[in-house]
TrEMBL record:
Domain of life: Bacteria
Transmembrane segments: 63-85, 105-124
One Pfam family it belongs to: DUF1003
InterPro entries on file: DUF1003 (IPR010406)
Annotated keywords: Membrane, Transmembrane, Transmembrane helix
Protein name per its UniProtKB record: Cyclic nucleotide-binding protein
Organism of derivation: Novosphingobium pentaromativorans US6-1
Length: 177
């Protein structure tokens, strides 16, 4: 069977996209290089983001996942109720003076400090998630572009094969007469 010659990225750009290789965006050039070399698309977005994550990034992700969960909200609500009960009724029942009686000023201070620390950490995690989303979008774009280009290549190969078979059939038909 006849085999098509390997194409360079420059040839593929002209053939498949109808543009010069130098006019293409970096992602398009990378995809054409991979197609010409016959290599697969690299690791997925989560793997790429994980390799670039610092300890602080991973800690921010964990704090955000815990701080933004129903388990945290329920547990924290139970701690608040326990704090108020202990400082209102339980200690008074034993004749002790509550260490943070109503209006719970120390509890308000702790909650304010928690919010002051937790909010920037959650925002760091959200920024990291936005970076992951950008990496995923770029990766998806490359996968989609490569898929489209491979479909175009296959279409052209089939066209070439059909032309070859038709020419062969015509030459065989001409030999019969």
């Amino acid at each position: 069977m006849m085999q098509l010659p390997r194409r360079t990225p420059e040839q593929l750009a002209e053939e498949l996209l109808g543009r010069k290789f130098s006019e293409l965006e970096q992602e398009e050039q990378n995809v054409l290089r991979r197609i010409a070399a016959g290599t697969l698309i690299g690791p997925d977005a989560d793997e790429i983001a994980a390799t670039h994550a610092s300890r602080g990034d991973r800690l921010a992700d964990r704090v955000a996942s815990v701080g933004g969960s129903w388990g945290f909200i329920i547990a924290f609500g139970l701690v608040l109720i326990a704090w108020m009960l202990v400082n209102s009724h339980v200690l008074e029942a034993f004749g002790l003076h509550p260490f943070d009686g109503y209006p719970y000023i120390f509890l308000n201070l702790i909650l304010s400090m928690l919010a002051a620390i937790q909010a920037p950490v959650i925002m760091m995690s959200q920024n990291r998630q936005a970076d992951k989303d950008r990496i995923a979008a770029r990766h998806d774009y490359e996968v989609n572009l490569r898929t489209q280009l491979e479909i175009l290549r296959l279409h052209r190969r089939f066209d070439h094969l059909i032309e070859y078979l038709e020419a062969r059939r015509a030459s065989e038909a001409g030999e019969e007469y």
